[in-house]
Amino acid sequence: MKHTAFKELHEKAGAKMVEFAGFYMPIQYEGLIREHLAVRESVGVFDVSHMGEVWVYGPKAEEFVQWVTSNDVKALFDGKVQYSCFPNGKGGIVDDLLVYRFNQEKYLLVINAANIEKDWNWLVDKAKERGLEPGKDIVNVSDDISQLAIQGPNALKAMQKLTDEAVVDMEYYTFKVLNFGGVNDVIFSTTGYTGAGGCEIYFENQHAEKIWKRVFEAGEEFDIKPIGLGARDTLRLEMGFCLYGNDITDSTSPLEAGLGWITKLNDNNNFIDKDFLLKQKEEGLKRRLRGFEMIDKGIPRPHYEILSKDGNLIGEVTSGTMSPSLGKAIGMGYVSSEFAGFDNDIFIRIRNKLLKAKIVKIPFYKS
Questions:
Q1: pTM, entire model
Q2: Residue 285 in 3-state DSSP?
């Protein structure tokens, strides 16, 4: 089992450690609800060093990233980040990812921990087809990079103490390369997976302990806390953000998943599966990913059946939890299009009981 450069710091902080995506990771420290609310109300720090990073270099870089991702890479400018996905050529999704544009010949792809090997092998195959050389034009640096997500309404105010460059007013989904906490060449981006604001920082493993210490010193006045993966999941679900392996998979299309906004089907954006997705859009979707709130008392979990009021099977839950911010049970799942209207009543089979829920628009939580 792999571990990040922060393993001993997690253990020292009293984290409950578990296996996650092949890594030894903190699931919680003081408790999920307390950690969740710390991020919503102030600032918390996630170790997300298990995520993968792949560089794409050279004169074919832009064309390659445009081909393998669904969003329009040509809309990016230097210092801009883009959410996207890798269509798999069969109507599904290899992974979702972030695309960082440094310049026209230098991109960073940030991928999910559980998919690093799969994504890398897939990218290598596609790179060879497009005339790029693995190890030179595309390089997997996942084992060399540490990453912290510092999230919450006070995150940027706290982190401003650690750099001379202005970061508190950075636009959402942009990044800078700067000196941070006395470490040069840190990638500082205003992205996140919580909907609470904040940043993610990338740096070489050797600086992990130094940066961890300085981040917590800078956030002390805001009662900064380390946050485990348990709260990361409840925070992202309150925002309706997809989790790969649950809400999106190799057998779900980005259109079905409500990711049409990152699936640019315009004439000048050619990418894998574009023709399939154009046809799917024209013919109409057979199912849609929808958010729902429980009306009856019960917590939905992945793979629970979704039924109509007549008791017919119409879908399946992909994610579900008791929302700490809202005090109610929420979930997402794929529902047959004819039953997918907002405010429609549906039923979730929980322990052989049909419990009532209502389809709602996401995000569930609105700050």
A1: 0.97
A2: coil
